[in-house]
Every structure is written in C-alpha cells, then in structure tokens.
UniProtKB/TrEMBL annotation:
Protein's recorded name: Uncharacterized protein LOC114239830
Keyword Transmembrane attributed: yes
Record-annotated membrane-spanning stretches: 320-340, 383-401, 563-583
Topology of this chain in the membrane: Multi-pass membrane protein
Keyword match Transferase: no
Subcellular location: Cell membrane
InterPro entries referenced in this protein's UniProt entry, alphabetically: Glu/Gly-bd, Insect_Ionotropic_Sensory_Rcpt
Length: 604
C-alpha cells in the first residue's frame, strides 16, 4: 500500500488538522456565523483550553479574517480593542473558567461571543444562567445535537422577555449550513435591550437643580436631565426607577470603593447614572460614558466684591485712553500758556502783531469746555478756526458725558478683587473632589484644596450670597446661577470669568455595559431633533429672566450718595477758593504793613 504524502503550506496548518466530523461541522457553522455578523475591522479572539486541532483549523480556514489564538489564561496586551470572541470548550466547567477570565481580565463582555461545546452533555440552561449573571447578552451557543449528532444545536437567549424581566431561557435558532443565500446566518446579534416590556430601568441621580428635580414623596423627576431620563424610559418602554445615593453627590473613590451615584454603578445596582459630574481621566478610566449631549462650565464663585465709591463714578463714563487724551489736551494748554509769558513768544507775538490775551488761556479753554459764553471773540480767522474746533470738540465730549453720567451714577459697580488665579490663593477655596483633579499639575491649588460635598456646597452658596464667608467655591455655573435666581435677583454673587474647565455632560455606565448601545441611539436622535438643546436653552432663558427681574422692575431713585463725587468736587473747589482768598487777604495786609514801614523809614 502506497503512502500518501500531504503537502502543507506552513507549520500551523499541519498542526491544526484533524478528522472529528461533529466538531468540524460546528466550527464551520461558527465560522459562517462569525463571517456574516462579526466586524472584520476587529480582531477575533479564539479561546480554547485543549488542542482541538480540527475545530480550530476549520474555523480559521472558513472565517478567513484576522484572528488571535489564545489558550489557557494568557492575556493579550491589546485586549481592550477586542470586540468579538469564539470559545472552544470541552465541558461546562471550561466555559465558566473562560467567561470568568474575560470578566476579570476586563475584556469587552458586551462584545459578540460564539461558544462551541464539544460535548452534548453541556447543558444550555446552565450556560445561559451563567451568562445572565455576567450580563453577557450577545451570545450564540453551539453544541452537538443529542438526536442528530451530526447536526449542531444552535441557541441564543433574550435577557428581557415579555412578562419576565430577567430571563436565561435558551431559544433554538434555525441555522443550517446549506441555507439558501446564507440568509439564516445574517442578523443573529440583534439589539436585545431596545424594549424593556415594562420592566424597571434603574437610574442613579439626586436633587441637582437646574438639571434634576426630585419630588419628595413620589420621586417624580423633572428639569433638564429629568426630561431626558423620561424620554429614554419611554422609548425603551421601561418603568423608570430612581435611586438616590445616601451621600447625595456625584461620588468619589474612597477606601478602595466608589461612593455616590458612581458607587451605585460600580456595585451594579443601577443601569446608569445621571449626575452631571465633570468628566476626568479617573472617571473615564473606571466607567463607560455616553456620547456628550451638552456641556458644563465649572467656574469660581465668591461673595460680591466691595462697591466702587460713588465719587469715582464721576469719571466712570470715560475710559482710560479718553481720560488720558483730555488730560493731555489741558496739559498742552497749560504748557502753551507758560510759553506765552517767555521772551521768545513775546518777540513772535510782536512780529505777528498778535494782541496778548487779557486773561489766562487755560481759563478761556475751561469756559468753552463747560459751554459758558465768552465776552469777546477773536476777529482773526486762524484764531476763530482754533476756537470753533475746540467748541465742537467740547460739545461732543460734554453731550456724551451728560448722557452716560446718570446711568453711571445709578449703576452698581464693583471693585473686582479676583481677576487672576493668584488672587484666589489669598482666600480659602475648594469644591467637589472630582474638580480638584483638574489642578493635579498645580501644587498650590491641589495641595490646599478643601473638598466639599454637594450639600455643603449649597450651604456655602447661601453663606457667600449673604457675605458671611470669604470662601471661593468651584462649582457648575448653571447650578450657581440657578441658586441665585431662586432669590429673584434680590441677592447677588460673584462669578469669576476665567473658566476652570468646560466639561462635556455624559451618562455614566459600568465598563462594557450592554445599555450603552440602545441608549446611544436614543441620545443621537434626541440631539439631532434638537430636544436636548431646546430643553437646556429654555431653562437658561428662564434663569436669566429671574436674575434680572428684581433690578429691571424695581428702579431705585437717585440718592445723595450717587452725587457724593459732585459734592466732593464742589467742596474742594470752595476750599481752594477760600484758601486763595485767605492768602490774598494775608498777602494784602503784609504788603500794607511793608508800605507803612517803608514810609516811616523814608520820613526818618
């Protein structure tokens, strides 16, 4: 008998060949399922515990896409990018070990999984109960058929079914290798959480105006995020259940555990959290986030700074360049007036036949600037042009000044004392611990930060508005403005312009949560139709109206304090006049005394 020589193209192909017909048929079936349902751009991870050469060889040959073979508990360094898996096992214990390894190694358990068991004793009920506990819902299970061993049995399950919110009951799939046009292999991983059939959708949140409002008794929600949460529940046909963490805050990592809303996710008590926590690298690394649906501005807030003294408001209509220009003009007039008394200017005046002014030119310029009439007007054209230009300039400046002066006197102007970050370091400061992460590279802020929870933040806001504390608080700008709007503009608070961070607003899920895909579709639709933007902008317009209503409809009359600057100038002018008058009287008496002495001396 002649021996037949088989030629292999490479060593791996020779190593994987085998003749087991049953498992080979299941491998081919699994390859076709993967071919029509997996995404070819991702690497497919093939896991096995024993050397099942026929099965692995058949799968790799028929799938013909990029795969990574993995045996035992070996972890790939790029495991986070793997979205689809094929598991070859001999019994139920192998399946449990591999599934546990996927979870503990932080593989994407929400990916598409095909499980092949070589023994017909692998109970599908036990397999799907294990999958349900790990919340792996995108799974297709193959095992040899007990009746027709050559034809594999193919199963899947739906974790939410009509009348049963948690189900692990396997359902048989009608999949045949020889089906027409491979139609039976397509769309075998549909979205299974797009309909909750009235089951509970658990959300972790807390009272956080203006984003979330909770009724005390019924826990009915409203507000910007409340409307979005109700929309998600309605589209998913779910019964919305609100869970408020005992800490009433976003949450932080403390004592090797997470607290607040993030702790509810971490402990798998809720499907997702809606808490408007600023997104940091720590949160992004430990939780899965939705598509950003809006943004928040985290800013500094402090008590209202001291008011600008009323006497300073007289020059407030003029900005610094205009003040400098007017002052320079008058200084120029003073300089010309001084030059007019020199011998050089007197010689020029004689040559040009210019009559010397009877009064000081500065006095004339000031009269014209105030709009007072002159006794005489020069007959020379060049002097007329100069005087008329000065009259026109003075008229424009004076009219503009008079128009804005009343508004300037009545306006509330603050002497801002927190213009730069270095100014904040002079006061006690702090905020939520998650905001502190943004200052990790700034030791002055990071090491001196005072962490406060959400309840204490609201108390600090009240104390800041009542000017009882110098604390500078870092908080969401919308929360600050809403808190101020509750007083209908009767109380004020300082919001520093320099923004700490403009963070996207997202929903938080546990890592590899199956809820991310169905909710992402709802969020995208809500964004595209403008539902979220309309909700946020409508709320902001209402807050702005409340903030301005107190000062818009309660106009205050002018008081004596508004004119304190005017009276100060008047008193200073009278004081200077009296001083000059007293000096003139004294000098006159001294002159008379000197004249008498000189007369007596002459007579002697």
């Amino acid at each position: 008998m002649e021996s037949k020589t088989v030629k292999y193209e490479n060593f791996t192909e020779m190593f994987l060949k085998d003749d087991d017909a049953v498992i080979n048929r299941m491998a081919i079936l699994a390859a076709k399922i993967a071919y029509f349902n997996f995404e070819w751009r991702y690497v497919t991870l093939v896991l096995f515990t024993t050397i099942q050469t026929a099965a692995i060889s058949s799968f790799v040959t028929n799938y013909n896409k990029t795969v990574a073979l993995n045996t035992g508990q070996f972890k790939l360094h790029y495991r986070r990018h793997i979205q689809q898996f094929v598991i070859f096992s001999d019994d139920f214990s192998d399946i449990c070990n591999i599934l546990n390894m996927l979870v503990t190694s932080k593989y994407n358990s929400n990916g598409k999984i095909i499980i092949i068991c070589a023994q017909d004793k692998c109970d599908e009920d036990q397999v799907f109960k294990t999958l349900m506990k790990s919340v792996m819902i995108n799974v297709i299970y193959l095992k040899p058929s007990i009746v027709y061993r050559e034809e594999p049995s193919v199963y899947w399950y739906r974790i939410v079914r009509p009348g049963k919110c948690f189900s692990s009951k396997p359902e048989r799939l009608d999949v045949n290798i020889n089906c027409e046009n491979n139609a039976c292999f397509k769309n075998l991983f549909p979205e299974k959480l797009s309909n909750f059939y009235g089951c509970s959708l658990f959300i972790a949140t807390f009272q956080q105006p203006p984003f979330m409002y909770l009724a005390n008794d019924t826990k009915k929600i409203s507000g910007k995020d409340g409307n979005l949460a109700k929309l998600i529940a309605d589209v998913l046909n779910a019964s919305l259940v609100i869970r408020v963490p005992k800490e009433h805050e976003w949450g932080q990592y403390k004592n090797k555990n997470w607290t607040g809303c993030l702790g509810e996710i971490f402990k798998t008590r809720v499907h997702f959290a809606m808490c408007n926590a600023p997104l940091t690298s720590n949160l992004y690394g430990n939780f899965q986030v939705s598509y950003p649906y809006y943004y928040m501005e985290v800013v500094w807030t402090a008590k209202v700074p001291p008011l600008v003294p009323s006497w300073q408001k007289i020059l407030q209509p003029f900005n610094l360049p205009l003040k400098f220009t007017i002052l320079s003009l008058f200084l120029g007039i003073i300089l010309l007036n001084m030059l007019g008394k020199t011998k050089i200017f007197n010689n020029i005046r004689r040559v040009c036949n210019i009559t010397p002014p009877k009064r000081n030119s500065l006095f004339y310029a000031w009269l014209l600037f105030l709009g007072l009439p002159l006794e005489k007007f020069s007959s020379r054209k060049h002097f007329k042009i100069i005087i008329l230009a000065w009259i026109w300039f003075s008229f424009v400046i004076r009219c503009a000044y008079q128009v804005t002066l009343v508004t300037s006197l009545k306006s509330i102007t603050y002497n801002y004392n927190l213009r730069y970050d270095s100014d904040i370091l002079k006061y006690p400061f702090g905020g939520m611990s998650s905001i502190r992460d943004y200052f990790i590279e700034d030791k002055d802020f990071y090491e001196n930060w005072t962490s406060v929870d959400m309840q204490k933040a609201y108390k600090l806001l009240d104390e800041i508005m009542e000017e009882k504390t110098d604390f500078v608080l870092a908080l969401n700008k919308d929360t600050i403005l809403h808190h101020a709007a509750e007083h209908i503009g009767s109380k004020r608070i300082q919001v520093i312009d320099n923004c700490i961070v403009k963070s996207p607003i997202v929903l938080y899920f546990r890592k590899h949560s199956p809820m991310t895909d169905p909710i992402a579709k709802i969020m995208n639709a809500a964004l595209e139709c403008g539902f979220i933007q309309y909700s946020y902008q409508t709320n902001w317009k209402r807050q702005e109206h409340l903030l301005n209503s107190h000062y818009a409809y309660n106009l205050q009359p002018l008081t004596l304090d508004n004119f304190s600057g005017c009276f100060s100038l008047l008193i200073i002018g009278y004081g200077i006049s009296i001083l000059y008058f007293a000096l003139e009287v004294i000098c006159h008496k001294i002159d008379k005394t000197n004249q008498r002495i000189d007369l007596l001396v002459d007579q002697e």
